[in-house]
Amino acid sequence: MTTLFAEISMSLDGYVAGPNPTLDEPLGEGGEGLHEWGFALKEWREPHGREGGETNASSEVMAESLARTGTAIMGRRMFSGGAGPWEDDPKAKGWWGDEPPFHHPVFVLTHHERDPLTLGETTFTFVTGGIESALDQARQATDKDVAIAGGGQAIQQYLRAGLLDELHVNVAPVMLGGGVRLFEDTGRPDLELIGAVDAPGVTHLSYRVLK
Amino acid sequence: MTTLFAEISMSLDGYVAGPNPTLDEPLGEGGEGLHEWGFALKEWREPHGREGGETNASSEVMAESLARTGTAIMGRRMFSGGAGPWEDDPKAKGWWGDEPPFHHPVFVLTHHERDPLTLGETTFTFVTGGIESALDQARQATDKDVAIAGGGQAIQQYLRAGLLDELHVNVAPVMLGGGVRLFEDTGRPDLELIGAVDAPGVTHLSYRVLK
User: Fold this and answer.
1) Domains, chain A, ranges and CATH?
2) Looking at residue B88, what is its pLDDT?
3) How confident is the model at residue B44 (pLDDT cuts 50, 70, 90)?
């Protein structure tokens, strides 16, 4: 069976989004700082239609992750653009625009039934049957690995259910002082350190979750 | 002025001690796992009177830290051996035994006045005048840097007061699911990543705290 891995950026104090999210600041106060290391990369800028950018130790990490990913699962907040009253709006197209950067099937965990939505080369399928159903569908749609693209709550759910095989955390050199924690009541799963990459403005930590 | 740096081991989920500490398990359930990377090192075992051990990428990190440290500050819980009813026992000698591994002056933050205690080559001075008083005394006693040896609450206090210059976090590949968090209401100080070291069973993260 292929690997289910989660990859997410976290502040040093353990948050994946800052406090007080709004539509203008969907990652909460200070939350953009979690992703500055990525925004600086040529490998991020090109698929997002932006020029310039640098290539550094994070580029290889990002390329490896892209290469192994066949399908992805994401929480409804990540699809709709952060926590807020708009997150369950059935008309929302997400904050991904007309050309989402995924280019592979994405399965969105939600409580609201909805027809699949295709934007550019990405089809979002809305799954109301729970995390195991989403994982089954994501695995059936590819021979490659399945990524949990976030957010924190989706990762927590898979971790608590013992379904997560690998955890990749990009630790950004910021503290957010509040917001959404990546690890809240996630128990004591056994981890094995795969390794760490020291990159400009970020540290990439990789762990195997032992069953 | 010399640098005030904190160095501490933290679980991936942000804890510096596990839940339910006891005298037998002062670091709480699972808390020993935070320090396994250190226990395995020759550089840790020798000053603690134990044979064997390995030399790896953590050895240099530990040697650099020892070389720069002139004096240290610690919280009362770290002196007395974890949280519990014994932590304010005025007769307690701490859990450091007759030959504590410090070999330099240590200033203990406490609310209880007490005469200095010399064990082997280490003198513990008990400071009731608050964190700034302890820092003044620690700086006056050396030309080298001052370390905050822990625990989490002492580091939080110096961080919140804007007195901390550097933060060194050893991320252990464990999750504790509860206990004492390193970062709780510590606000949003600006950080700069100094670098990371990928070592066996631990990742050493170093940050400058920008004022």
Assistant:
1) 4-19+26-210 (3.40.430.10)
2) 62
3) confident
Helix/strand/coil percent split, chain A, to 5: 25, 30, 45
User: How far is residue B96's CA from residue A14's CA, in Å, rounded to a whole number?
Assistant: 31
Mutate to test the interface with A, among B181, B190, B198 (most CBs of A within 10 A): B198
Give the tens place of pLDDT for each residue, B53-101: 999 999 999 999 999 999 999 998 888 876 555 566 666 666 778 888 8
How far does the CA of residue A171 sit from the closest CA of chain B (Å)?
9
Mean pLDDT of chain A: 91
Taking the Cβ of residue A40 and every Cβ of chain B, the question of whether any pair is shorter than 8 Å is answered with: no
Q: Per residue in A172-198, pLDDT tens?
A: 999 999 999 999 988 999 999 999 999
Q: pTM of the prediction? A: 0.93
Helix (H, G, I), strand (E, B) or coil at A27: coil
Which member of B30, B182, B188 has the closest CB to residue A188? B30
Task: Tell me, yes or no, if B187 comes closer than 8 A to chain A by beta carbon.
Answer: yes
**What ipTM was predicted for this assembly?**
0.92
HEC profile for chain B?
CCCEEEEEEEECCCEEECCCCCCCCCCCCCHHHHCHHHHCEHHHHCCCCCCCCECCHHHHHHHHHHHHEEEEEEEHHHHHCCCCCCCCCCCCCCCCCCCCCCCCCEEEECCCCCCCEEECCEEEEEECCCHHHHHHHHHHCCCCEEEEEECHHHHHHHHHCCCCCEEEEEEECCCCCCCEECCCCCCCCEEEEEEEEEECCEEEEEEEEEC
Q: Which residue has the tokens 């400071």?
A: B127
The pLDDT confidence band at residue B26, using thresholds 50, 70 and 90, is confident
The total number of residues written for chain A in this structure: 211
